[in-house]
Design goal:
With 441 residues, the protein is an alpha/beta fold. It has 13 helices and 16 strands. The radius of gyration is 22 Å and the shape is globular. The protein binds pyridoxal-5'-phosphate (PLP).
Length: 441
């Protein structure tokens, strides 16, 4: 069947998908993917014209909103000039993107290694740290996601690691999570202190001289937008310094405006040794990721070969999109908008929702990076059952909101360009959908 022979493109899309597309993280027979045909800003639609407010930013990557005209135009212009180029060449789009990205990083970061996405960014950051230190072990958190390749998936803490443990030298520890403390703490300060003690003991027990890197998300994202208590990231930095360990901050989800800063670590006054990025760097219009490398680490490869590479490292369509994205984000105050919307619209509106709905156990986040943690019982904090979460998702979709649902949480993660009016509309939808599932059952 050709596209022009059918009027029901949504049905055709579903049929082709179910017939031939093999999906991520799924039992193939158990899924019924949602059809999306187009989008603009915060809105997406199917082929029939039914639309939704995209409060997922897809996989939390469309920071600049859908179909930003300057980014689309830059991709078109680059496509007219040169659509692909070997990584060994010098290319203007690649060089401009690297320079703009390095400018966003703290002083002392001049070099960028480009990858195709976030997983291979972490993969190469781990490689850099191992080569730089001559050590092997990588410490990362149980509540984390770092990507689906060799070392990145084994650095990941959640269930996705277990069927994929082919890489060696990975050890996990618990990070701070005041709402569900592993440390019996009763305040964020105590959680911070005890989580840092636990990390110190993990380093000592594993042998400080064997540890190449501590790899953590500045704010664990998929695991629940778990904003670390003040002082935690600084404490991790101090431990890394004390034991000569490379600190890799994974900014793949939290970076490029999501928290209302270019990088989530900025508010914590911490400078890592390696920064990994992807998603928001060009909002995923063309796949791109990378590692921003601090000068001392980069310098060790001046005379020594860096044993890593990718055919599409710094692909011109992706880097042209990154240049246009970063320039538009500067010109249009997109990061500032994320900050203001977070402080003035999302924070008060989500707090008001929590006042009204018993099922919301905790609201946490910053910028346009929030989680509503849903519980069957506020006293015990028992997570809302999966069946109720599924019902809630259906209710949200039916009311015109595309949500990001993870375990017992709704992540409220619209584009950084979202308006106060769109937030108000979304909050009305969350409110109505939550009312339907209460009392929990
Ligand atoms: N790191 C973090 C924090 C992520 O959230 C993700 C993806 O969600 C990744 C790494 C992996 O990125 P990618 O899917 O582009 O490989």
């Amino acid at each position: 069947m050709s596209l022009t022979q059918t009027t029901d493109l949504d049905a055709l899309t579903r049929e082709l998908d179910r017939g031939h597309v093999f999906h991520s993280w799924s039992a193939q027979g158990a899924i019924s993917p949602f059809v999306l045909a187009g989008g603009s800003g915060t809105t997406v639609w199917d082929h029939s014209g039914r639309s939704w407010l995209d409060f997922s930013s897809q996989l939390v990557n469309v920071n600049i909103g859908h179909q930003h005209p300057a980014v689309v135009q830059a991709i078109k212009e680059q496509a007219e000039i040169l659509t692909t180029v070997s990584p060994a060449t010098a290319n203007l789009a690649r060089g401009r993107a690297a320079s703009l990205i390095a400018d966003l990083a703290p002083d002392g970061f001049e070099k960028v290694f480009f990858t195709n996405g976030g997983a291979d960014a972490n993969e190469n950051a781990i490689r850099l740290a191992r080569l730089y230190t001559g050590r092997d072990t990588v410490l990362s958190q149980y509540r984390s996601y770092h990507g689906n390749t060799g070392a990145a998936i084994v650095a990941t803490g959640d269930w996705r690691r277990m069927p994929n443990q082919y890489a060696r030298g990975h050890v996990h520890f618990f990070g701070p999570y005041p709402y569900r403390s592993e440390f019996w703490s009763v305040s964020p300060e105590q959680e911070c202190e005890r989580a840092l003690h636990h990390l110190r003991r993990t380093i000592e027990a594993e042998g400080p001289g064997t540890i190449a890197a501590i790899l953590i998300e500045s704010i664990p994202g998929t695991a629940g937008v778990i904003v670390p208590p003040d002082g935690y990231l600084a404490g991790v930095r101090a431990l890394a310094d004390e034991f000569g360990i490379v600190l890799i901050l994974d900014e793949v989800m939290a970076g490029f405006g999501r928290t209302g800063e270019w990088f989530a670590f900025e508010r914590h006054g911490v400078v890592p040794d390696l920064i990994t990025f992807a998603k928001g760097v060009n909002s995923g219009y063309v796949p791109l990721g990378g590692v921003i490398i601090s000068d001392p680490i980069a310098a060790t490869f001046d005379d020594r070969v860096f044993p890593g590479g990718l055919t599409y490292s710094g692909h011109p369509l992706a880097t042209a999109a990154a240049v246009a994205t970063i320039e538009a984000m500067h010109a249009e105050g997109v990061v500032e908008n994320a900050h203001t919307i977070g402080a003035e619209a999302l924070a008060p509106a989500l707090a008001a929702l929590a006042e009204k709905h018993e099922v919301i156990g905790e609201v946490r986040g910053e910028g346009v990076f929030w989680a509503l943690e849903l519980v069957a019982d506020r006293a015990t904090r028992e997570p809302l059952p999966a069946a109720t979460m599924a019902r809630l998702k259906t209710e949200l979709l039916e009311r015109g909101l595309l949500p990001f649902v993870s375990d017992n949480r709704i992540h409220v993660v619209p584009p950084c360009t979202v308006t106060a009016d769109e937030v108000a509309r979304a909050v009305e939808i969350y409110d109505a959908a939550l009312a339907v599932i209460e009392p929990v059952g």
